Hints:
Elements: H1 3-27, H2 38-64
Amino acid sequence: MNADQIVRMIMRLFMRKAINQGVNVASRRGKPAEEMTPAERQQARQARQSAKRARQAARMMRRLR
Length: 65
């Protein structure tokens, strides 16, 4: 393994961590429940349920492989 490959591997590692942090920060944005209208609360609840189902499906697919 030459020096260029090592540098690229380390840069990818740091970039992945930085991008993940950015996504995590962006996903936490939103209004507190007290400031939401009932329709917004329902939409947020449905989004959480959909995300939960997607995570469960991804776990199941990983188990099947």
